[in-house]
Design a protein that fits this description.
The complex is a heterodimer of chains A (694) and B (231). By secondary structure, chain A is an alpha+beta fold. In chain A, the strands form 8 sheets. In chain A, strands 18-17-23-14-15-22-19-20 form an 8-stranded antiparallel β-sheet. The relative contact order of chain A is 0.08. Chain A contains 16 helices and 38 strands. Chain A is 28% helix and 32% strand. Chain A starts with 7 loop residues before the first strand and ends with a helix. Chain B has 231 residues and is α/β, with parallel strands linked by helices. Chain B has a single domain, classed as P-loop containing nucleotide triphosphate hydrolases (Rossmann fold). Helix content of chain B is 32%, strand content 23%. Chain B is built from 6 helices and 9 strands, in the order H-E-H-E-H-H-E-H-E-H-E-E-E-E-E. Chain B has a 9-stranded mixed β-sheet, with helices on both faces. In chain B, helix 2 packs across helix 3. Chain B is globular and about 50 Å long. The chains are: A alpha+beta (694), B alpha/beta (231). Strand 36 of chain A pairs parallel with strand 3 of chain B, so a sheet runs across the interface.
Chain lengths: 694, 231
């Protein structure tokens, strides 16, 4: 039987750290009867939440990898991707968003819209993901879903509309009032599994009427029919209101707000209803692929199960049973035993086992239609690869991958672990495009680089746990860069004409700062003073120089090299001679071009109670930061600053002790800036010493 | 610092800003959308170019939005005047400006004083000029405004405010300062009204550093760039 695509939901759950994503997912799985007991994230039973399958996740109480899981609610198949909340792992969030049709944005009713929610929201906007907001933790002291709804409007710029009102708040949270059906909803039973519908409590009637009016006002824009009914002062039907909300949500012009408390088992079932009612099914969303045979022209995927297959591998996992590849199908049908083509490598792959994932348990299936999320076994590919059926060669559009900003040198504890380390690094590199590793041939050290301290720490920890590979870790290093600040001329002759075949080449020109881009090479040679065939040799020579700057050995970026003069020798000029001449010329020019060291500057946001604002600003100021501004609301403050990454190592510990653990911070790469002279001198000195010691 | 030409060319020189130290409190008034913030930002930038440090207090606006206002005006300045090292100028502005945003209800002298002391005591930022955008004059009494002026004097800071006027509120002080500031206008040393005139926005200088404006030079805001220019 063909699956009815209108009853499929691929949704993501994402939010700020500790807003309760995993707790919520756990409840959803329980109510949809996928699991039969609820384990808390930091539960006393030591089992840990079902979605946090990695040992490390269970220990730290944070979700690192997004696991995909599946459940069924009121006849709808829901695929859920649990996405990580920490900013170091945003590539996971972005990748998950690529394959989602809709999302639930969880916000804490006390903390409200925090910096990570803003980042996640921005990413969702980039991928045009319709979303509904769930204001969680309404049982906590200080809960205020009204304030949070206002923040969604102000800070996220979404047209947030409350579909529910809380009955009581904080400790007195009893249930919610559904403003669409105009009923009070209570959650009975030990785990809130029994729903009791009642009339709206009399003392809340006035407030309910007011909020209902607001709701109708906001959603009537999306349905002429509803507008008419309202103008005629009749009571619109539930279906009519739901239809309007759905339309608004799909057009990204409305963000319905649901409230509850996952921990207290309140408000989850209505959230599932909302997912079914308001979030898009695969055919509601337009997805485009790039046709590799037609100059990467954009083509729309059809969602039709009869068309050739198009599927995206969005996540790899090395499980107990070999490599597991999570994929999302966009059109066509995937059958066990089928042969599909990886459009990046052109390799044919046979599907051995096809499974539906539920955290780390799985269920084997025979075939899957379009719009589904599944996993394949034993397929060799990297994450982000597209698989196609015969006849087409498409690629789902490439994803935005940021460059790493921090690196660490690692050394295996002994020879035995060496093999395991390489195996692990190979795996991680495939799983996570922001994680890179290479061997520095000068020092023979293995260098890993990524998006932040925690990011790398997690991988080191995983090496130990999953690959039994313990490594010694060097101090974290910032990914510095070098660039030039002014134009400088060069004119260099490379000559070696003693014995044997000689080498001769002269290269003249200049180098100058390049505002945008990393490197540009321009050939302005006239009259063939450097023969045509040796121009690429010059370019090659220059490129070699870019890999290691003279100041600190960091890569050189933002530079334009122009050659306009030179000379050659009929016999002694060669490819090698001109490469060496170019290297000499570059070194000559570079020294004169005012080279400087650039460092990554992070946009840092520290949030916490206002009483610590002074201390927080002091700590940022000490770390060469520029405080951009502060935001205060009630007793809650955000300090925004631009900080050199080099100064942020260990900041989480400092912040914790300064604020009794009540403040937290997030950071992301903002730009590269010139390091101050004193710091530059130190870096250069350290580099010189390192060179000497070799 | 090499920005003297920029300072000298600034049409704002018509105002006697910066000629005397401290004891200056200024006010920019207009109906919504005429460019109060743009004018405040230019006053702040002028102060920064003269080597001062400015805190921009924004009530009910986000940090990012406020920052954008500065970026826009800076871009216009860089387009209009030639500056040899634009990056250095942008960076200098960043280091000499701090943005403080508050939710409407909680802005008061006590709060501000506490925040400023935090900054000054730890030697993080010592402002010479405070620009307050979005201050609610409707619900403020004379006393608390005088209190703020007192604080500015104590810390030897210039203080600039913006206030929103309304078309249908015709109350005025004797010197022509409209509501909602008509009862407190004597606290201000400089008062500028923004008025639409044809396709331009005219700066009506009601009071220029304690005196009536006698220079005879008129200033406009260019409605496309929001930059001040001589008319």
């Amino acid at each position: 039987m063909r699956k009815d695509l209108t009853k499929v939901r691929n949704i993501g759950i994402s939010a700020h750290i500790d807003s309760g994503k995993t707790t919520l997912t756990e409840r959803i799985l329980f109510y949809t009867q996928r699991i039969h007991a609820i384990h808390e994230v930091r539960g006393k039973d030591g089992v840990g939440a079902t979605m946090d399958s990695m040992a490390l996740e269970k220990e730290r109480g944070i979700t690192i990898q997004s696991a995909a899981t599946y459940c069924n609610w009121q006849g709808h198949d829901i695929n859920i991707i649990d996405t990580p909340g920490h900013v170091d792992f945003t590539i996971e969030v972005e990748r998950a968003l690529r394959v989602l049709d809709g999302a639930v944005l969880i916000l804490c009713s006390v903390g409200g819209v925090q910096s990570q929610s803003i980042t996640v929201n921005r990413q969702m906007s980039r991928y045009k993901v319709p979303r509904i907001a769930f204001i969680n933790k309404c049982d906590r002291t200080g809960a205020n879903p009204y304030r949070v709804t206002q923040q969604i409007r102000d800070k996220l710029g979404l047209n947030a509309v409350m579909l529910q009102l809380p009955i009581g708040l904080e400790n007195d949270l009893e249930g919610v009032i559904d403003l669409v059906s105009m009923k009070a909803v209570y959650f009975d039973g030990d785990q809130g599994e029994t729903i009791r519908l009642e009339e709206i409590p009399a003392h809340m009637q006035a407030e309910v009427d007011e909020k209902r009016e607001e709701l109708l006002d906001a959603v009537s824009m999306f349905s002429d029919e509803l507008m008419e009914v309202i103008i005629e002062e009749q009571t619109p039907s539930e279906e009519l209101v739901r239809e309007a909300i759905r339309r608004g949500t799909l057009s990204l012009e409305l963000a319905p707000v649901i409230i509850g408390s996952a921990y207290k088992n309140k408000g989850i079932q209505p959230l599932l209803d909302a997912v079914n009612a308001y979030l898009p099914c695969p055919t509601d969303v337009e997805n485009t692929a790039l046709d590799l045979d037609d100059n990467e022209k954009e083509v729309q995927v059809s969602n039709d199960a009869d068309d050739p297959l198009v599927a995206l591998a969005f996540k790899l996992e090395d499980g107990r049973y070999g490599q597991l590849t999570y994929i999302r199908t966009y059109q066509g049908t995937l059958k066990k035993g089928d042969t599909i083509i990886n459009s990046r490598t052109g390799k044919k792959v046979k599907i051995g086992r096809l499974v539906r994932m539920h955290a780390d348990e799985m269920e084997e299936i025979e075939e899957a239609g379009s719009g589904d999320i599944l996993a394949l076994f034993g397929v060799d590919c990297a994450s982000g690869d597209t698989f196609c059926g015969s006849g087409i060669n498409w690629s789902m559009s490439s994803m935005h991958v940021p460059a790493p900003v921090i690196s660490l040198a690692i050394k295996p504890k002994d020879n035995k672990t060496q093999a395991n380390v390489s195996k692990a690094l190979n795996r991680f590199g495939k799983e996570d495009p922001t994680f890179k590793s290479f061997v520095d041939h000068e020092t023979n050290e293995t260098i890993i680089s990524g998006m932040g301290e925690l990011h790398l720490e997690v991988y080191i920890e995983r090496m130990k746990r999953e690959y039994n590979a313990e490594v010694e870790v060097g101090a974290p290093r910032v990914a510095y860069r070098e660039t030039v600040t002014k134009r400088a001329e060069f004119n260099y002759t490379h000559k070696k004409q003693t014995g044997g075949s000689g080498q001769f080449g002269r290269v003249g020109g200049y180098l100058e700062p390049l505002e945008e881009g990393e490197y540009e090479f321009e050939d302005k040679i006239v009259g063939g003073v450097i023969p045509r065939e040796f121009i690429p040799s010059c370019d090659k020579g220059f490129r070699k120089c870019l890999q290691k700057g003279k100041l600190t050995g960091s890569p050189i970026t933002g530079i334009r090299v122009v050659i306009n003069d030179g000379s050659s020798h009929a016999v002694d000029s060669s490819d090698v001679a001109f490469q060496l001449a170019a290297i000499g010329a570059f070194n000559e020019g570079y020294a004169k071009a005012g080279p400087v060291i650039m460092e990554p500057i992070m946009k840092v946001a520290v949030e916490g109670p206002s009483e610590f604002q002074g201390a927080v600003m002091g700590s940022l100021n000490q770390r060469r930061g520029v405080i951009v501004g502060t935001f205060e609301e009630g007793n809650y403050t955000v300090v925004e600053a631009e900080m050199p990454l080099a100064e942020m190592f260990g900041y989480s510990t400092t912040l914790r002790s300064l604020t009794q653990g009540k403040a937290e911070f997030t950071m992301e790469l903002s730009t590269y800036k010139k390091v101050p002279k004193s710091v530059a001198d130190e870096l250069i000195k350290a580099f010189e010493e390192e060179k000497k010691n070799k | 610092m090499g920005y003297e030409p920029l300072v000298k060319q600034n049409p704002l020189r018509v105002l006697k800003i910066g000629t005397e130290n401290a004891r200056e409190m200024g006010l920019v008034m207009a109906r919504p959308g005429l460019g109060k913030t743009a004018l405040l930002v230019q006053i702040a930038l002028d102060s920064i170019l003269r080597g001062n440090r400015v805190i921009h207090v924004s009530i009910g606006e986000s940090i990012d939005k406020t920052r954008c206002r500065y970026d826009d005006i800076l871009r216009s300045i860089l387009q209009e005047y030639s500056v040899s090292q634009p990056h250095e100028l942008i960076e200098m502005v960043q280091h000499h400006r701090m943005i403080m945003t508050f939710k409407e209800s909680i802005f008061s002298r006590a709060k501000l004083e506490e925040r400023l002391n935090d900054l000054i005591m730890q030697n993080i930022f010592t402002p010479n000029c405070l620009v307050v955008d979005g201050f609610d004059f409707e619900s403020v009494n004379r006393e608390s405004l005088a209190d703020l002026k007192d604080l500015a004097n104590m810390m030897s800071m210039q203080l600039w405010f913006s206030a929103v006027t309304h078309r249908d509120d015709t109350r005025k002080s004797a010197s022509g300062v409209p509501a909602p500031c008509h009862e407190v206008d004597d606290l201000f040393d400089t008062v500028i009204l923004l008025k639409p005139e044809g396709s331009n926005i005219r700066l009506d200088i009601v009071r220029n550093n304690g005196r009536a404006n006698g220079s005879g030079v008129c200033l406009d805001l260019d409605p496309s760039t929001m930059m001040i220019k001589r008319s």
